[in-house]
Design brief:
alpha/beta; globular; 355 residues; nine-stranded mixed sheet; two-stranded antiparallel ribbon
Length: 355
Amino acid sequence: MKARKHTYDLQRIHLKDAVPLDTPFQLCLEPTFLCNLRCNYCMHAASREELEKQGFRFKSMEWDTFERIVQQMKEFPHKIKKCTFSGFGEPLLDKRLPEMIRVIRQSNAVEKILVISNGLLLTPELGEELIEAGLSELKISIQGMTAQKYKEVCGAEMDYEKFYHNLITFYQNRKDCILRIKIADTALDPDEEKMFYQRYGDICDYIAIEHIYEQFSFVDYDGKLQSADNRNRFGYDMKKVNICSALFFKLNILQEGRITFGFPDGVHCEGFNVNKMTLLEAWNSQERLQLLYDHLNGDYSRRPECMACTRWSYSVVPEDLLDGYEEKILARMPALKESMGSLQKCNIPCANIGI
């Protein structure tokens, strides 16, 4: 097998040695909330009415919103390490995705550009467009080893051999672009793990099986999840993580311009939208600083949902772990500690969505 067994970027800085950051390492951009699949473990397994009640909008990003985001990306002191087109929709449904990639590449505001996709809409022609536009990485999420499994997991009709050969074509023509392929463990039958590695291990650069866990309170997971043998999403020992490291290195922007911290459906503060404030203002805001300060001090009184949330425990990798380094990080953040003194008794107007 040519591929290496890993699905996330291995070129990582140990976060404990780098924070606080004046520029986010990662910017997650949701070009659309629309999706062509309804995977039974995803939020799209819920009804449209339920998702709209949770605050999500079935739309794609307006072009002027996108252009505003690109301009704001340039305001950070340093280049953003990675811009990821993901969120909760299928990026390839946005017909202007290659143009978006090209504009971001030409902005010189980021080092790498990643698209996370289910790949069903990938054609040789679109793949070439993405590569020529300047895509750094394509990560494909596989949902089964047969068309019948896709129907079971996602409710989708698909031509499996055509899908498979389109991935081969992309891999053969990828130039400097990296192809990562992962599959949800729920999409594998008990005897298919070896088959997965045999079939896909020679047509990508990185490959992995990811454990699916319960993420959304409004999705029915009964009988859908596999035992992970006390392992997290990436196969590391599962343990409770108290500090959500994503708050320290990532910004998310949903299709309507809403800015969130942690996960795309994570912490959202009132008025935090690129059409009302800049990304730099959100990154340096007292609301975000309060979140960092609270997590480092184990004080979740303002954000009880953070105390109850286990999502980062399921997703953390060793390089991003901050637990155990709280005092060292706080010592590098004296201005933060001082500026937060007047806020500790305030009720910051934040609204958590989707957790």
